[in-house]
Amino acid sequence: MFAQTLYVQWKWNRDFLAFYTVAGFAAPLIILWIALTYLGLTTARELVLVGGVVGVTTAAIAVIAGLTVAWQGYGVDDRVGHIYALSLPVTRTRALALRAATAAVILLLPALGVWIGSMLAATQVTLPPMLRSYAGALAIRALLAAWLAHTCMFALRYAAGRRAKVVLATLVVMIGTLGFATEAVPAAREAILNVGNFLISSPGPFGVVFGRWTLIDV
Amino acid sequence: MTHAISIDRLAYRAGRHFAIRDLQMRVPNGSVYGFLGPNGSGKTTTIRLALGMLPAADGTITVLGHDMPRGAHHALARIGYVPERLHLYPMLTVEETMRYHASFYARWDATEAEKLRRAFDLRAEQRIGRLSKGEAGKLMMLLALAVRPELLVLDEPTDGLDPVVRRDVLAALLEYVSTHGATVLISSHLVHEQERVCDWIGVMDGGRLVAEMPMHAFRSGIKRLRIAGAPPHTSPTPFGILARRASAGREEEWVVRDWRDDMTSWFAGGDAALREVVDLDLEETFVETLRAAREAGGRAA
To answer: Are residues A48 and A134 in contact, defined by beta-carbon separation less than 8 angstroms?
Structure first.
């Protein structure tokens, strides 16, 4: 059951996965190549900056890959009215767990692309003694971020169904309103910032996505 | 357990205009139960409620001894289901779909599935999204039969299929039923098709089950009488009058239920004269049943 579900998920998502895997692989190579060859960035400070650009790009690829796989997985069922999924003899909990687990497995591919691309990119540059490359850490973080993004989107789409876009828009409006409130209502500023920091700082629930992403650091 | 499907006091509402109210339905074990009704009468909704795909507002549903929807995963493992429209994943091939489907069913019969695939002339490598309507219908029937179900739930399985494919699909169904003695619930508005294969009938209209009985009772119990000199108001009759319509001259047509041949004597003592007793075919019986139910519903309202 797991193997067949994995295969079906792979078949639904293979085009996207191929794109994100290639993107994850190529992004560090291209960014470092441009930085070294065209911009001539070689100092430690400049290399840390370039490592940060690689990190942010990787984060974006990982999050978008996770969101896409979740959106696509739900969309395939939605187009056939969920009839097939609901007619199979498994509990809904088990069916959702199967989907989530198999999606997590296929999201290893973009992370693998990031890992190999980052390792190759790191070999292009001679790092000063105080700097190190973190290809493995970047790939693991990309994997965790992709899983988190997938889980959030997966939960949202299965919980909200066709209202998912409305819920997403509401969330965006809420975040915007809170941002405005931090400026407009000084009394609420600290409380809002504390909640925001809790959510996006490690070990908060979204800590893996936010914070500092980098390939090259001290 | 004498009923494969047992539904009591079922209630469900979809939007403002459609509701199922106080539905009671029994599908006897081993029967081929024809579920008749016009489009939009609630057949598909009732089926989805029975299979645990929709949450009922009220009532109880038992399928193969399992309370639904709580025991849906146990019941569904013993059910072959063909929905009214293609529900399979369009990017998979026929073979991949069979493998995927098989992985969920312990009772999957791979030999039978392959035999049916060849008999239905389905190419293993063909994508679901490119199947014709007939091929899709055959594949869905294949998937339903290859799980060796105790209960087959078929929602308009031959709707839109050409006569050749329809015959193939029904032949495969009848062969399976005769071999395995499975119960079948077959929903359709193709009345003549039901007449050939069903031994029980349920008629749905406007979210209500307006008739449920063995096929022979349904067919033989309703007659059209041609009557001359019928009084405007009749005294109590031993049969039920479903409808009265003016016919040629002073004649009337009565559609009656619970008719027996010895009831002709009821006309002997009165002014009305019975000219003819006409047998109705299933389609006419179905139409008259619906008409009577709607008139009764209108009067009640």
So the answer is: no
